[in-house]
Design brief:
Number of domains: 3
Strand content: 25-35%
Shape: elongated
Radius of gyration: 33 Å
Structural class: alpha/beta
Distance between the termini: 67 Å
Largest sheet: 6 strands, mixed
Helix content: 25-40%
InterPro entries: DUF58, vWFA_dom_sf
CATH architecture of the largest domain: 3-Layer(aba) Sandwich
CATH topology of the largest domain: Rossmann fold
Pfam family, one: DUF58
Keywords: Membrane, Transmembrane, Transmembrane helix
Length: 438
């Protein structure tokens, strides 16, 4: 059980040194009392630590969730209770959090209320993986306030940080809610698309170009064709898991934000009736899954995307997109989650996407870099600020030229603010589907 001196004890020791020097200079005859006083002070500090209430019957209770969505905050109450009669008035707490949970916040100094110490841990993880709460370190002062006494309470609290599935479920519920007048309603699939559904009697509200003249002649009455949105389209979620996708953006990794958007889009596509498959690459392709369909396949999609991890390697778009083009035979909507820095790093990617877009409909998704935008918008106060603003403007111009070139090649480009990426992808997918582009 570690014991540390408090500021009070250090102050007394500093004053004692000054007093001892004064005694040695001005009253040498009293010097024999100096060691005795130092020994008494040492004994008092030792007894203060031995009888400190922190060491007496401490029970620490905390029950964090077993699964936590990345970027989501959960309030977890905890309690420290002393079962012996010696009760401290104030304790200081420090939780041994895993590096994934270091963004969590809680009150470090607690006061006794109702015979126990209560607090709340605002648990938050900024990356996927396994994060544990290893122990609770609690310290308090002795009755004399001379020493801190610290005790360690081991905790066996394992937390698995996954993509924010709860957020996906909430957004999907809002998206498919019949009562939601603000979201996109996709329940009514009739009159959108070009897949033949049925014949109906023609009236003036219908487009005359949809009149089926052969059926009308057979029934001696005007009939028109009724269409519905096509189903069974192929959607490919292609993930770049290279070095750039591991960089944080708005507190979360780019890859984690892309996975969240892919889960929401995958749920929407499966609900409508399309097929979804996943593809991932870094320096080389390492994951391609067969198509899944039906809402029951969403569990498989969650498992596949949760297993993706960012890599410190540079992404090889040429090899990856050539491999994807060879393995996906049917025309599909390929949604590529990737990023680039400047024109030089994007050259090979542009050439590969040009070849891929001749066979498939490609949607390139990139997060808007708020850091570069903030540097451009910031009022310069020093010469370094001007230099940063110039380089930021140059990077933004190069980025815009690359995106413009992609659009000229027939690639759909989606660059949205970080927090709006998931909803923007779903809206873009539904717009492409309504326009019969898939």
């Amino acid at each position: 059980m570690p014991i540390y001196p408090t500021p009070r004890l250090l102050t007394i020791l500093a004053l004692s040194v000054l007093v001892a020097l004064g005694v040695g200079i001005f009253a040498p005859g009293l010097w024999a009392w100096v060691p005795l006083v130092a020994a008494l002070l040492f004994v008092a500090a030792l007894l203060d630590g031995m009888f400190a209430p922190v060491a007496a019957g401490l029970v620490f209770t905390i029950k964090p969730p077993a699964v936590l969505g990345v970027g989501r905050t959960v309030d977890v109450p905890f309690e420290a209770r002393f079962t012996k009669w010696r009760q401290p008035a104030i304790i200081e707490l420090r939780l041994g959090l895993h590096r994934l949970l270091l963004t969590s916040t809680y009150e470090r100094r607690l006061t006794r209320q109702d015979g126990a110490f209560h607090g709340t841990l605002n648990l938050k993880a900024m990356a996927r993986g396994r994060g544990d709460i290893e122990a609770a370190y609690i310290r308090g002062r002795g009755f004399l306030g001379l020493v801190y006494v610290q005790t360690r309470v081991p905790l066996d609290s394992e937390i698995v940080v996954t993509p924010d599935l709860q957020g996906v479920e909430q957004e999907a519920a809002d998206l498919f809610s019949l009562d939601n007048i603000y979201g996109v309603r996709v329940q009514n699939q009739l009159y959108n698309g070009s897949e033949y559904h049925a014949l109906r009697e023609y009236d003036a509200s219908q487009d005359h170009r949809r009149i089926d003249w052969r059926s009308s002649a057979r029934h001696m009455k005007l009939f028109s064709r009724e269409y519905q949105a096509e189903r069974n389209h192929h959607i490919v979620l292609a993930y770049d898991t290279g070095r750039l996708m591991g960089e944080p953006l708005g507190g979360l990794k780019r890859l984690d934000r892309a996975i969240y958007a892919g889960l929401l889009l995958g749920y929407t596509a499966l609900k409508i009736g399309d097929n979804v498959r996943t593809f991932a690459f870094a320096s080389k392709p390492y994951h391609i899954a067969p198509p899944i369909s039906g809402t029951n396949g969403f569990a498989t999609l969650k498992y596949q995307l949760s297993a993706l991890e960012d890599s410190p390697e540079e992404s090889n778009h040429t090899l990856a997109l050539a491999d994807l083009n060879a393995k996906v035979a049917r025309r599909s909507l390929i949604i590529l989650f990737s990023d680039f820095i400047d024109e030089i790093s994007a050259d090979l990617m542009l050439e590969s996407l040009n070849r891929l877009s001749k066979k498939h409909l490609v949607l390139f998704v990139a997060c808007r870099d708020e850091v570069v935008e903030d540097l451009m918008a910031k009022t310069p106060n020093q010469a370094e600020d001007v230099t940063r603003a110039v380089f930021a403007r140059r990077l933004a111009s190069q980025r815009e030229r690359v995106l413009t070139q992609l659009r000229r090649q027939g690639v759909e480009v989606l660059e949205t603010p970080t927090e709006q990426m998931a909803a923007a992808i779903v809206s873009k997918y539904l717009a492409l589907k309504r326009a019969d582009r898939l």
